[in-house]
Design a protein that fits this description.
alpha/beta, Spore Coat Polysaccharide Biosynthesis Protein SpsA, Chain A, nine-stranded mixed beta sheet, disordered C terminus
């Protein structure tokens, strides 16, 4: 099984090398490493060139944002599973891929991660025991530095590049609800995630997640009734699932009610 690691970076040379070293040092042999640099001006290109012998594909050119860069990596990737480890993020040790490989059997496999704050303090993020619609509807998301995703899932529907911060949230939520992808938790720590990048902008992330939760926009090409039907087909045996469906009905019904008024305002 080939595992692809993709690193996306922009003007982050000071942290990029430790990420590259972390991937190179993995003991697992059947890995593919891709580095997508957004045309950095801080010497990152030269650093990448110095490690070119250990990188299967790299490019340094301007892009249209982080999710455009991630999609560029997906487009050239050839692995069975993919994990994004961006500049400043590192694997917790050199055996992560070796230990994870025999456990990978779902569309999304997520482990734990240490969140490293700007002041260098660390906290352990474990993720939910089970990923449900309610998890995403509460605006929670998985830490993508600890998520192994089947490559065919990413290639079939790449990240929505209109989002600046929550493209991974939108993608996983969509795949759970619409395509009924499987999510399973790995009982292991995958990476250290440095939380002072674009994903640390909580205000912007909250605004974008609200847009995702507006079902009439999020599922713009799917009828609202069909969306509710698909959600109801998921296992609704717990109160949490029932609550998730209840709140999504409120969102959809509210969107339908407001649509005529928004249309008038737009004229």
């Amino acid at each position: 099984m080939k595992i692809t690691i993709i690193t996306v970076t922009l003007n982050n040379r000071d942290y990029l090398e430790q990420t590259i070293r972390s991937v190179i040092d993995q003991s697992y042999s059947d890995k593919e490493y891709i580095v997508i640099d957004g045309g950095s001006l801080d010497g990152s290109k030269g650093l990448i060139e110095s490690y070119a012998a250990h990188i299967d594909y790299w490019v340094s050119e301007r892009d249209n944002g982080i999710y455009h860069a991630m999609n560029k990596g997906i487009a050239v990737a050839t692995g069975d599973y993919c994990l994004f480890l961006n500049a400043g993020d590192v694997f917790v040790d050199s055996s992560v891929l070796d230990r994870a490989k025999p456990l990978l059997n779902a569309d999304f496999m997520y482990g734990a991660a240490y969140v490293v704050e700007p002041n260098k303090t660390k906290s352990l993020w474990k993720g939910p025991l089970q990923v449900t619609p309610l998890f995403f509807m509460q605006r929670f998301s998985l830490c993508h530095q600890s998520v192994f995703t089947k490559m065919h899932v990413l290639k079939a529907r790449p990240y929505n590049e209109s989002y600046q911060v929550v493209g991974d949230y939108e993608q996983m939520f969509y795949e759970l609800i619409i395509n009924k992808r499987t999510f399973r938790r790995l009982e292991m720590v995958i990476a250290d995630f440095r939380r002072d990048g674009i994903s640390a902008d909580d205000y912007k992330a909250d605004l974008e997640k609200q847009k995702v939760l507006e079902a009439f926009r999020y599922f713009g090409y799917i009828e609202h009734d069909e969306l509710l039907k698909r959600i109801s087909q998921l296992k609704m045996g717990t109160r949490k699932y029932a609550l998730a469906l209840f709140f999504l009905r409120l969102i959809v019904d509210g969107a339908k009610t407001l649509a005529p008024f928004r249309s008038k305002l737009g004229k």
